[in-house]
Design a protein that fits this description.
The complex is a heterotrimer of chains A (222), B (44) and C (249). Chain A is mostly helical and 222 residues long. Chain A has one domain. Chain A has eight helices and no strands. In chain A, helix 5 runs antiparallel to helix 8. Chain B is mainly α. Chain B has one helix and no strands. The longest helix of chain B is centred in the middle third of the chain and has 32 residues. Chain C has one domain: Four Helix Bundle (Hemerythrin (Met), subunit A) (Up-down Bundle), CATH 1.20.120. In chain C, helix 2 packs antiparallel against helix 3, helix 3 packs antiparallel against helix 4 and helix 3 packs across helix 6. The longest helix of chain C has 57 residues. The chains are: A mainly alpha (222), B mainly alpha (44), C mainly alpha (249). Chains in contact: A-C, B-C. Chains B and C meet through helix 1 of B and helix 1, helix 2, helix 3 and helix 6 of C.
């Protein structure tokens, strides 16, 4: 199953790399939201630094909807959905591959965004270990939920507007936990953050389990 | 009654919404049942 | 009752349920707005609880029925379960909205603001949005089978998502602000407790009545769609035959 998942993930990432959509559109979009937040929240009043963790994760969440949309749009638009279904690959493996491809893209995006946050919002990190152990499971949770709901909305003609409506309320717990953990990592109060990192691990497992269990039904969709 | 405005608004909204939903459901049922042959309705 | 099929979604059972609902609502209004006493602490705003609490319970009941319908559709793949999921999700959305409105109206005199980021208010809002998303997915034009499959997946995920949201918001809330939720007085007056209980019973009757009608409307809609689909297929066939006569096949 893992070999199959790797094939799907590698295929998706190769497609993404060739189309350059992630690098030329999704990442600039995420950076743009960081700049827009600074316009909305006056940087001179010192509020920006305190709300930086929340803004960072909101930017990641918004980009997740784009990445999740792309992950299945490439199949639907190229008409390769049926091939994916008939390929004999295990649905769970397809799910894991799709989710992994989203996770890899999001991790790259988060690195760029983190650098942007540090520079633009003037944030200093006290506990990098905590941030890493929160960001990894958070990204896995985002990727798993994104792959599941992306598949759900893939064949819908209005998926660009429908997917955020379906996905964002589901991702709200990830936003809550990831923001709280990141705040703790910045404030040098890591004790409060490890609990949230634990919750993120639970969320990642739950979303991955649910997606793996239900993905077979979604692949039946025309 | 204290807070009469809040209480009456709350009860009014609940009663009004449920009544509106009921009315619309019943009316749609009437319209649709004209289009469906009798033998395909399983109740009554 | 005559043998003629009813001109609507009514039957003898729903007629009984309907009159019971009307009588129940009248009795509840008399109990909740007049007979029951005002609360020592909250004053008369406690009367909002007699519609707020049943709404919240019916919201959860609707969500559970939607998840049950979704699960059973995935196992049996029969129209009835999909129709149940649809009807109960619509009712759940209605009662979620009513829970929010009555909660806010109760919060204004009690907390001094329509909205606080109270855990229950926040997670109910997210549940409401999840339900809105479910109905949005249902309203996307698709074949009956495709719609049922997509909706079943989303409906099945509805309850776990609602629970995850509930617990995370709860945790978030207790860390960020003190629990200022005014609980119902534990030494609550007997008549108030009875009214609250009556509200749940009346709510249950109204819910089953509405659910039956809504289910039948959805069922009729399905029949209409099938009939018009059959007719369209027959017409296309006729056209194809007509066109096929002239050509050399």
């Amino acid at each position: 199953m893992f070999a199959e998942a790797r094939i799907v993930a590698a295929k998706d990432l190769r497609l993404e790399w060739r189309s350059r959509v992630t690098t030329t559109q999704v990442v600039p979009f995420a950076v743009l939201t960081l700049v827009l937040f600074a316009f909305a929240i006056d940087p001179s009043r010192g509020v920006l630094g305190r709300v930086a963790p929340g803004l960072f994760w909101v930017a990641v969440l918004l980009s997740t909807t784009l990445a999740a949309n792309r992950a299945h749009a490439v199949e639907t638009d190229a008409g390769t959905r049926d091939m994916l279904r008939l390929s004999g690959l295990e649905p769970r493996a397809v799910f894991a591959g799709k989710a992994a491809a989203i996770v890899v893209q999001l991790l790259g995006l988060e690195i760029v965004l983190a650098a942007g946050t540090v520079v633009l919002y003037n944030v200093q990190l006290a506990t990098p270990a905590l941030l890493l152990s929160a960001a990894l499971p958070a990204t896995v949770a985002l990727g798993a939920a994104g792959a599941t709901y992306g598949a759900l909305a893939a064949s819908v003609r209005v998926r660009e507007t429908l997917l955020p409506l379906l996905l964002l309320p589901v991702l709200a717990p990830v936003l809550i936990a990831a923001t709280s953990a990141t705040e703790a990592a910045i404030d040098s109060t890591p004790e409060a953050g490890w609990g949230w990192a634990g919750l993120l691990v639970v969320l990642a497992l739950l979303y991955a389990g649910a997606g793996a269990g239900i993905y077979g039904v979604l692949l039946e969709d025309q | 009654m204290t807070h009469a405005a809040y209480v009456l608004t709350g009860w009014g909204v609940v009663a009004g919404s449920v009544a509106l939903f009921t009315w619309r459901t019943l009316r749609r049922g009437r319209t649709l049942s004209r289009l469906v042959p009798e033998e395909r309705r399983r109740w009554g | 009752m005559t043998t003629i099929a009813p001109a609507g979604t009514g039957s003898r059972a729903t007629l009984v349920l309907g009159w019971l609902s009307l009588a129940g609502v009248a009795a509840l209004a008399a109990l909740g707005l007049w007979w029951s006493p005002a609360d020592v602490v909250q004053g008369d705003s406690v009367r909002l609880m007699y519609v707020h609490v049943p709404s919240a319970i019916l919201m959860y009941a609707g969500c559970s029925l939607c998840a049950l319908g979704s699960l059973m559709w995935l196992r049996k793949r029969t129209d009835g379960w999909d129709t149940l999921a649809q009807a109960s999700a619509e009712l759940a959305t209605l009662f979620a909205a009513l829970t929010l409105v009555t909660g806010m109206l109760w919060g204004r005199p009690t907390w001094g603001a329509y909205w606080t980021w109270d855990a229950r208010l926040t997670s109910t809002t997210l549940l409401f949005l999840l339900l809105v998303g479910y109905l949005a997915l249902r309203s996307v034009p698709a074949s009956a089978d495709t719609r049922a499959r997509r909706s079943a997946v989303l409906g099945l995920l509805l309850v776990p998502n609602a629970m995850i949201v509930h617990y995370s918001v709860d945790w978030w809330n207790t860390l960020h602000q003190d629990a200022t939720v005014a609980k119902l007085d534990p030494t609550i007056d007997d008549l108030m407790l009875f009214t609250l209980f009556a509200g749940m019973v009346v709510g249950g009757v109204v819910f089953s009545w509405l659910l039956t009608h809504r289910f039948r409307v959805a069922w009729l809609q399905r029949q209409v769609d099938e009939v018009s689909l059959d007719r369209a297929i027959v017409e296309r066939r006729a056209e194809a035959d007509l066109a096929g006569h002239g050509s050399t096949r």
